[in-house]
Every structure is written in C-alpha cells, then in structure tokens.
Amino acid sequence: MAGEISEGSVPAYYREVYEAIRCKTDERVQVEVFQRLLQRTDLSKTVLGQIAEHVDSADGFMSKLSLYKALALIALAQQGKQPSPKLLENCIQELPKPQLGELKDLNALRMQPAQEDVLMMSQTLDRLLVRDTVQVELIPEKKGLFLKHVEYQRYKISVYRRYSDFDVFHEVLLQRFAYRVVPALPPKRMLKGVLTSVSEREFIEGRRRALGRFINLVARHPFFSEDELVKTFLTFNGSDVQTKLRDTYKKMGDEFMTNRIATQAKEYLPADIQAQFSTSRELIRNIHNSFQKLRDRAEKMAERSKENATDLLMFGRELSTLGSDASSLPSLASSPSTWGTLRQSLKSLSVEFAVLSDKAAQQGRREEDDVVEKLNIFLDLLQSYRDLCERHEKGVLHEHQRALHKYGMMKRQMMSATVQPKEQASVEQLESRIVQQENAIQTMELRNYFSLFCLHQETQLIFIYLPITSHILGAFVNSQVQGHREMGAVWNELQPKLGCLFGGNNGLKPYI
C-alpha cells in the first residue's frame, strides 16, 4: 500500500471510528457501511469516487488499515486537498482528523449481523442424516466394541473401543459442550438386585444398540461433528485413547472459551428468550411423553411378532408330532384308513409352519430395527434435551444466583467495616475479594447468556429432528405391508395342501 499506515501511528479517533463501525463478529469493515460513512463527509461525488479508488477492499470487506487510510484521505480532502496516497507519505506529523459528526451516531451505520446467521441453525433432517453413519459391533473374544464407518463423508476407518473409552469420551464431551445436548450412555452392567426378565445376552445387545445411537447422534450434531474430540474418538488408533481424549480437551477447554461469539451471546438473543424457552420446553416435554408411548407400543408389537414366530413354529411341530405317531389304531376307530392319510399330511405341514415362523421372526426384527430403533434415537435426543434444561437451571443459572448472594453479603460486610473501623489490612482484603467476586459474576453472566444462546440452538435441533416422525411411520407401514405380503404368500401356498384333509371342502373356505 502506498502511503503505509501502521496501527500504532494512527490517532485514537481513528481507532474509535473503527470500533464503532466494524463487524461485531469480524475484524473487517463492510464496504457498504464504509459507503454510508462517506455520505457523512459532505464531500462531492467526484472526491468520494477518488477516495474509493485508493482504498483496498475484497469480497465486500475492507481491512482495519484500509479504513485508517480512507479516514486520512477523507480528512485531507476536507482540508481542500486532492486525496491521493502520495499526500499520506508527506504527513510527517499526526494524521489529520476527519469530520464525521458525533462519534456515538456512527454505531447506527453498522450493519447488524443477521441474527438468523448466528442464532438460527440452517440445517435440515436429511442433511444431518447423510453425515457419517457409525456402526458399533461387538467383539466377544476381546470383550470390546468395534466402531466401523459404514457410510462416511470424512473418515474411512474402523477403530476398537472398550466401554470405558466411551465413558471417558462422554465425560470430556460433557465438559467441553456443557451447554449442548450430549446423549447419555447406557449402563455398563445390569443393576444387581433388580428383578429383570432380560438375559445377559439381551442386555449386551441392547447396550450395543444404545452406544450406536449415542455415537451417531454425536457424529451428526452440527457443533460436535467437526470437533477435535469427536475426530479423536472416531479415528485415533493409538494405545491409549483415553489419555489422548483428556489431553485434547485440556488444550481446547470448554466451548465458552473457544466460541467466537460466546461473550457477545446476549446481543443475539431475542428479548423474550425466557418465554420462548419455557414454551418450547413444555412442548418438547409433551412430545417426549407421546414418543415414549409410541415406542412402548412398537416394542410390544415387535415382541408379539417374535412370540407369533415361536407359536407358529411350535404349532407346526405339534402337527408333526401328531402326524409322526405310529401307534396302531384300535378296531373301534370308525375310519382308520382316513386317519392314516391325515397323519401323513399333518407331518408334512410342519415345513410350511417353519417358513411362516421364519417370516414372523423377520417381521419382528424389521419392527425392532426400522421402527423401534428410530423411535429410540429420537427419544435419546429428547431425553438429552431435558437433561440440558436441568443442567442450565441447576448449573450456570444456580451458580450465578449464588454468586450474587455472596456478593451481597460481602457488600454488607464492607458497609459494616466502614461504620465500625477495622484494621486497614482486613478492609483492603475485603475490597480485593469484592473485586474478584464482581469479575466472577461478570463471567457467570456471560456464561449464562451463552448457555441460553446454546439452548436456543439446541431447541431448534429438536425441531429439525421432528420430521423423523415421517421416517418412523414410513418404516412402520412398510414393515407391515412387507410382513403381511410375505406371510400371505406362504398361507396361500399352504391352503391347497390342506385339500386332502377336508372332504368336500368341509371346514375349508375357498380363498376370496
């Protein structure tokens, strides 16, 4: 740049103008804002055009130093001089001050960043669901779990993880993202002393599914997916992933320390944020309750399909047992030859009933994998949202209120010390503690607003996931259609084989 200007060489006024009009979330100045500033100079369009020619900008923005150069050219032009970079080279003394009106009015020129850009999530469910899909498989011989990317956009890798690795990952994830929805982990073991009909094998399978839901919700979360902690857990192949995870967190700190707008969160929140939060929380609580009932019913249907499979198999086996009975018939049996023929037919029917049993078992697995599992993943998200709301109220909000209470007590002690003279050292110590407490309160207030900011975004995430209802209903209907079609086909094949059992169609209705 001709006529070089360094930040240290500009007058304080230049820096004040910059702070008044720069972007809230960026160190640059929007060209559109600068053009509004030019309109306050009372310079002719020709001169303004000359100034604009000598100012560097890119992609609609100009740097801090470009603005300083422009302010110097404006001041020189207001003195009646031809604005050019050469003039700046001759400015040996302090750069001249431009006439821009009241400094406090310059804030109005700044283009407020669109709240939707920062506060609102520009996501759709489909976009979230096409992110990495991670499969959790059991490795019984190692007593561990195997994380495998079956669909991925970033990592083509499989890693071995124990439950304790998940435990540490969950711990550091909760520390880093205390103001976000972090799904809970399933328990490591069945609780002792609790009556349960669940076998050890069923418990382990249920835990595997729950860990799969956990890691996929994390991998697809808009703010977790690109985080170094998540990348480490999904890709690190070293000997001690737990130490690596803890070290990674120590280097990064929590989200409040790294988020670029954490300390400005209050500026982006709507005035009625508390009312919005209360309304959304109540609505999501009701949605959670309804989805729990849907899941419970879907589980019962899947269980009934499995029970149906067992009943059909046993029904066929009993027919086979009946048909296999080779006992000779007593002479008083009215038609021994007919029963002999029937017995042979009954024995062969067990094959069809075994096929029917298999189809019913497949139906149960479809209902479990496609319907119940989709309901569970959304329920896990809803529960983690409720947990987040409690963390907000019992954590940062409660700490803020306690800090204010403590501050009030300190102030009363200070007033008492003023009325009743005490040693100077103890008064100074109390003053120092009051200052520290004021700083702590200020930080807590910032954290409280950032917590609300994150809650607002996480609430949106719940509503982004709500269309999963259509996925669940689609899976439910498709599983029923497929199941009934497959079962119907087997029943239709079985029907003609029963002809020999019913003389003159007695007891067998023709198929309509």
UniProtKB/TrEMBL annotation:
Residues 124-241 form the PX domain. One of its GO terms (biological process) is intracellular protein transport. Transmembrane segments: none annotated. The keyword Transcription does not apply. Gene3D superfamilies: Arfaptin homology (AH) domain/BAR domain (1.20.1270.60), EF-hand (1.10.238.10), Phox-like domain (3.30.1520.10). GO terms for cellular component: cytosol; early endosome membrane. Belongs to the sorting nexin family. This is PX domain-containing protein. It comes from Perca flavescens (American yellow perch).
